[in-house]
Every structure is written in structure tokens, then in C-alpha cells.
Amino acid sequence: MHVGAAKLELELEFRGAGAPAAAQRLLQAAAPAENEPQAGSGPRPSARAESVLRWLTTAVLYAAFLGLGMNAGILGPTFQDLATNVNRNISGLSLIFVGRASGVLCGSMIGGILFEYMNHVLLLGVSMLTTTVGLYLIPFCKTAVLLIVVISVFGVAFGILDTGANVLILALWGDKGAPHMQALHFSFALGAFLAPLLAKLALGTTLSTENHTEPDLHPPALNQSPEANPGPLFAAPDDLNLLWAYASVGMYIFVVSVFLFALFFKTQSKHENPTASAQVSRRAKYHKALLCLLFMFFFFYVGAEITYGSYIFSFATTHVGMEESEAAGLNSIFWGTFAACRGLAIFFATCLQPGTMIVLSNIGSLVSSLFLVLFNKSPLCLWIATSVYGASMATTFPSGISWLEQYTSISGKSAAFFVIGACLGDMVIPAVIGILQGHYPDLPVVLYTCLGSAIFTTILFPVMYKLATLPLDHSGKKTERMRTAKLCFPALK
Q: Are residues 276 and 299 in the same domain?
């Protein structure tokens, strides 16, 4: 205000009389002073808006992965109820897991292509909306074939979201994305942990872990031929608690999809860029070889993780002689330490490099699996080594993605490629181990698999590191990460 008054006085005093040079200079100095921002006023409003939008997008991705984990975890506790709903027994509906895994695999491949040409946020929103529809349809499916088809279709949406969220986190944060990548995958583990609790609340006393091991629980269903009495394809489930279990997860995922669509429309209408921190990316000299090695790394890592988590219960009861309640606790301690260490890894990632975390994880999994093999009859060793093994496996996948991003660009197709490796490991290794365990019931085949996988990944990582640190191939072309930013927020310049 004082600057404006001084300017007005000078204009009145010197207008028409020929202002001296000093007054003219004062006028010129006063004018820009009016518009000069105050020192120390903080970052530009646009920079603040970009930062807020970046954090908001990240938070929505966390929420999406929480829903993804709930989506993955809700199937197991409700499996018996779904089998009853379609008049099948457990073994007759086992293809449901193959269908879902196949859908995730196809979704990863499709997503890797679509992310090269479509807005990432929009595609993730559509995927979440598709998942919502699938979750609402599942309790209404009255035939096994229809149920498998529906789960396979929304498995595609699962795969698209799994691939896209990883790519988008890297696009948002670049080399600073390691803690956010750990938080993203912790959200998935938390969702998978919460899903059985949610199912128990919805299903009440009808949920029983013993139901999963009794194939003759519903004898009429074994003798009923779907062809003889086809009935309707869609109908309300007899047990409405099953509907509420899936509807509650579906409603949460729908809310997250609304936020994703809101982010898409906001970035289309306003010139705000949450990916402003993206740096000039790199392309390793052996980029494709690195992707192939990471494909193999994730194939064996995820295969061992799922194999141990799936078979430790039966191994503990048949090979070690544990009671079912103890074996269930052993299974819980594995996934509990897995989820807890993923949460702690968010903080570790702020002070440790992704490569360091991978080395520590490899050492932990190697030592614990070795002790499991050497002392496979000891219940005490089984408890301790299982805890260490679960903790060691927790951070490997997100750390692997963050580590690769330090040395070479990760596009949608690149992310899809190593996610496919993880999906194949999830499908192939547990199936093969199940067959081998049946042929050699007296051998701890599960433990041998975990040890072999740990040895392989421990040897493979130094090879990957050597390839990654060879001289980089810099190019003048626009980088993949900058292209990703354009696809995420095309209205931005």
C-alpha cells in the first residue's frame, strides 16, 4: 500500500512539469516493486499443486492396491461357500484358481500394450470398475463354468491394475520411488490380510477352515448333474452373507475407481503435472537381457513364495506331525511376518538402496531355507525359520522393480514382461511341486524347492548387477518415463 501511495504522489508531482531524471528512475523502481513476490513466501502455487496432485495420486494407488489385495484374499475363505452356491464340491471347482491366474496373466500382457497408448489413470479406473462388476456378479453365478469365466474376466482387470500401478509409481517418483513402491505392495499384503477377517464378519459361523479339507461335506452336490437340472445362470445366492462379503469389497473398489476417474478428469482439464520430478531416464546397454533375467528372478522368487505359503500347512501336518491348529498358526506366522516386514520396508527403503535390500533378502531366504532342509523334522526350527523366511521374502518384489528402475527405463511393456514371469511362477511351480510331493511323499520337496530357488536367485542377482552397471546407452530421444508422463497426463506440457 505504501509503495502505491508513493507512486501516486510522484505521478501527481511530476506529471506535466517535466519530471527530473531521479524521479523518473524512482517511478520505474516503484512499479516493479509492486508486483515482486515477497522473499521466502515458499514454492510457486503451481509447484505446490503439482506436489499435492502427485501425493493424491499416490494415495489413490495405495488404496487401489489395498482393494487388489482384498480381491485376491477374499476367494480362499469363501471358496467352500462358492462351491455350495454352484452345487459343486471343492475338487470340482479347483479350476477357479487356474482361471483367475490365466486372467491375471492375460491382463498383464494386455495392460503392457495398452499402457503404451492410453492414459494410465483412465485405464486403471476402468480396470477397477470392471473388478467391481465382477465382484458383484460372483455371488449370483449359479453354474461352475459361468463362475470360472467371470473370475477369469475380472482377473484380466487384476493383471492390468497390477502392471499399471507399478509403472505409474515409477512415473510419479522416479529414482525416489523405492519407499512408495514398498508402500504400494504393503497395501496389497494388508488387503490380503483383511479379506479373511471381512469374510469371517460377513459369513459368521458358516466360515470354517475345516471345510476346505472335507470333500464329502455336501454329498448331494456330488451326485447332482448340472446337465440334468441346469437351472438359471444367475440367481440370488441362498446364503446372503456370501453376497455381503463380496459386495462390501466391491463397494470399496468402486469408491477407489471414482477417485481414479476424478484424477483423470482433473488432469485433463487443468495444467497440473504430478510427474514433474521425473528425471532423464537411462537405458542399460543390455536392457533386454536384464528384463529376461528379472523375468527368471521373479519366476523362481514368486513360485517359491506361493509354494511355501500354500503347502506349509500340509507339510507340517504330514511330515512333521503337527496338529492342524499348530499348522494353521505356522501358516499365519509366515504371512504375518511377510506383511509386517513389507510395512517396515517402507521405512528401510528411505535409508537403504534397493540393491542392498535384495541382497539382505536373498541372504535371509538362503539361510532360513537351508535350516529348514537340514532340520526339517524339528518343530522349533520350523517355527523360527518360517518366520525368517517370510520376513526375507517380503521386500524382494518391490525392491526388484525399484532396483531395475535405477539402471534402465521401465515402460508398460517392460513391467508387463516381468509381471508375467511372476504370474507364471505362481502358476507353474506350485502345480509341479504338488505332483512331485505326491510321487515322493517322504521327501520334503517343498523345502528343497525353496532352497533351490534361494540359491538360484542369490547367484542370479550379481549377474544382473554386473549387466546393469555396464556403460549406459544414453540417447537423445524422449525417454520412456517422459512418455509415460504424457500418457498419464496428456493435457500437460
A: no
232-257 pLDDT, tens per residue? Answer: 666 666 667 778 888 888 999 999 99
State the Cα torsion 235-241-247-248 to the nearest 10°: 180
Whether the model pTM is above 0.85: no
Range of the domain at 435: 283-473
381 contacts 372 by C-beta, under 8 angstroms: yes
**Is residue 302 in some structural domain?**
yes
Q: CB burial class (10 A; 0-12, 13-18, 19+) of residue 206?
A: middle
The answer on 378 and 342 residing in a single domain is: yes
Query: In this predicted model, what pLDDT tens digit does every residue of 430-464 receive, in sequence order?
Result: 888 888 888 888 888 899 999 999 999 999 999 99
Q: Residue 82 has which C-alpha cell?
A: 462358492
Q: Is residue 10 situated within a structural domain?
A: no
Helix or strand holding residue 364 (H, E): helix 354-374
- Residues 6+ positions from 126 with CB-CB distance below 8 Å: 157
One-character DSSP codes across 75-99? TTTTHHHHHHHTT--TGGGTHHHHH
Number of separate domains in the chain: 2
CATH at 276: 1.20.1250.20
Q: How far apart are CA 419 and CA 319, in angstroms?
A: 33
- Asked whether residue 31 is domain-assigned, the answer is no
The reported pLDDT for the residue numbered 69 is: 86
Residue 423 vs residues 68, 101, 102, 119, 304: alpha-carbon distances, Å? 15, 7, 8, 24, 12
CA end-to-end distance (rounded Å), the chain: 37
Is residue 394 one of the residues assigned to a domain? yes
Interior CA angle at 412 toward 117 and 296, to 5°? 150
Same domain, 205 and 294: no
Side chain identity at residue 354, one-letter code: P
